[in-house]
Amino acid sequence: MRDVIGQRRLLERLGAHALRGEVAHAYGLSGPRSIGKRTAALRFAQTLNCEVPGVTAGGCGACRGCRLMEAGTHPDVILVTRSDDRRDIAIEQVRAMQEELSLRPLEGRRRVVIVDDAAELSEHAEVALLKTLEEPPSHAVVLLLTPTPVRLLDTIRSRIQSLAFRLVPTAEIAEALHKRFGAAAEKHAGPAAGRPGLAITLSTDEAARMERRRLDNEFYKLVGSGLTDRFAWAAALADDADSRRRTRQIEKRLVEWGVLVRDAAVLAQGLDRPVRPDRAAETSKLAASVGPRDLVDTALLMEKLRRDLDFNANARAMLELFALRVPFSVALRAAG
Ligand SMILES: [Zn+2]
Question: Residue 141 Cα, ligand 1 centroid: separation in angstroms?
Fold first, then answer.
């Protein structure tokens, strides 16, 4: 599909179906943040509503319809997303979408709804959405974007065609960065750890690069600190009264740090295949001072905590457990 990095086979199939008009009423695009779900959803909508005859997968990108969709102003593409001042996607937003969706397409062939992120639907909003999935208008295509389908109601999951997005090989990301931003951008492929959206952000946004470094250093500092500091860290992070923001903050750390621990675990086993080659120095210190088994256990715990994040009501207890389990490395004491 035009201008999407990764998921080639999945998107080729989806694009071919869209071109033949074999389109399901609802899809669930799942996968880690910054992996390309939103871009793929947009390209899918462009495939369905591009105005050029003999349209290609992803749309032409140049016609009026494609340009309006790219800008988010096409009348047949409805984006449902959480506004910054709210904790979730409200039922009123779903109702407004349903009203629009009941009308025939104005300019294109299909009305496309993109819900991003579907895990942020309020309970009532999710139940309301179910009605659309049960009796979709014939011209409707609903795309639900979410990190993991587990976060959706069973009754919703059973009505969507599931499309799982996977991490993208570094070489593929590097090649795409080279094409878009020149050879110098290739170095951001490794640090993006399989996520093209993050690679693009790191290539173009200095503030994002600094934020990333800050987060990495927070981890290395934690690894080099004793119990008192670790518990203070847990308390500070758990202190956010906005539970969704707190969950995102914790999730971000578990995802990013999970990669750092994974790299050290693999290196400690004698294999040098880092996902984050830019952190090779810290990775080798960690691998040299902590046993492979401890590192693997930590990586598994982080994976489990991340999965359970939505069901874990006591953030502080969870973070304290994590703080206790993070391996201690004297070698990293001065880091950060
Ligand atoms: Zn077009």
Answer: 18
Q: Which helix (H) or strand (E) holds 261?
A: helix 243-268
Does the bond joining 117 to the residue before it have cis omega, within 30 degrees of 0?
yes
Distance from Cα 5 to the centre of ligand 1, integer Å: 19
Instruction: Give the model confidence (pLDDT) of 202-249 as tens digits.
Output: 999 999 999 999 999 999 999 999 999 999 999 999 998 888 788 889
Which superfamily is assigned to 8-164 in CATH?
P-loop containing nucleotide triphosphate hydrolases (3.40.50.300)
Rg (the chain; Cα; Å)? 22
Contacts of 38 (CB under 8 A, 6+ apart): 114, 116, 145, 197
CATH topology of domain 208-332: Zinc Finger, Delta Prime; domain 3 (1.20.272)
Q: What is the rounded distance in angstroms from the CA atom of residue 234 to the CA atom of residue 250?
A: 10
Model pTM score: 0.83
Centroid of ligand 1 to alpha carbon of 42 (angstroms): 12
pLDDT at 336 over 80: no
Going from the Cα of 107 to the center of ligand 1, the distance in angstroms, rounded, reads: 12
Residue pLDDT, tens place only, 23-74: 999 999 999 889 999 999 999 999 999 999 888 899 999 999 999 999 999 9
Q: Alpha helices of 86-205 — where are they, by DSSP H?
A: 91-101, 123-134, 154-157, 170-181, 196-204
